[in-house]
Amino acid sequence: QVQLVQSGGGLVQPGGSLRLSCAVFGFTLDYYGISWFRQAPGKEREGVSCISGGGGRTYYADDVQGRFTISRDNAANTVYLEMKNLKPEDTADYYCAADLLNVQRCSAYMWSYVPAYNYWGQGAQVTVSS
After folding, report:
1. Other CB atoms closer than 10 Å to residue 44's CB: what's the count?
2. Strand partners, 95
3. To 10 degrees, the CA torsion angle through 103, 115, 91, 89?
4. Hey, which bits of 13-130 come out as E strands?
């Protein structure tokens, strides 16, 4: 059974750091990429970052580039999103997601297309506030 189980999130002050985890079950990260999305109240879900199957490629949204780092532990079948220098505008629900119909989903022009993803984590709330 395919599952994406998230952990992490919470309340942090501006400039602080958080780490999100996404443990996957039922498929292997050797072949499939994982993406992170976020959705702020009243806004559409948007792509944050992606790491390809095997971990050779990573992509970031412009507004998190240099502050967020995506990584993976294949042995643990887990993907991480390390978030530093958090800003109030980073406040949102964060989701990990997988497209198990396309091993090439994590590529430059396709990774942030929300409708393509067929499996989602349960979400984690991140609140950046003083």
Report:
1. 8
2. 37
3. 100
4. 18-25, 34-39, 46-51, 58-60, 68-73, 78-83, 92-98, 119-120, 124-128
Q: Cβ of 48: how many Cβ atoms within 10 Å?
A: 25
Per-residue confidence in pLDDT tens, the chain, 130 aa:
999 999 999 999 999 999 999 999 999 898 899 999 999 999 999 999 999 987 679 999 999 999 999 999 988 999 999 999 999 999 999 999 999 988 888 888 889 999 999 999 999 999 999 9
The two tokens of residue 98 are 């997988």
Three-class secondary structure of residue 53 per DSSP: helix
- Residue the block writes with tokens 């189980």: 5
**Beta pairing class for 58-60 and 68-73:** unpaired
To the nearest 10°, the Cα dihedral for 101, 48, 115, 121?
70
Laid out side by side, the sheet with 18-25 consists of 3-8, 18-25, 78-83, 68-73
Q: Which residue has the tokens 């948007």?
A: 46
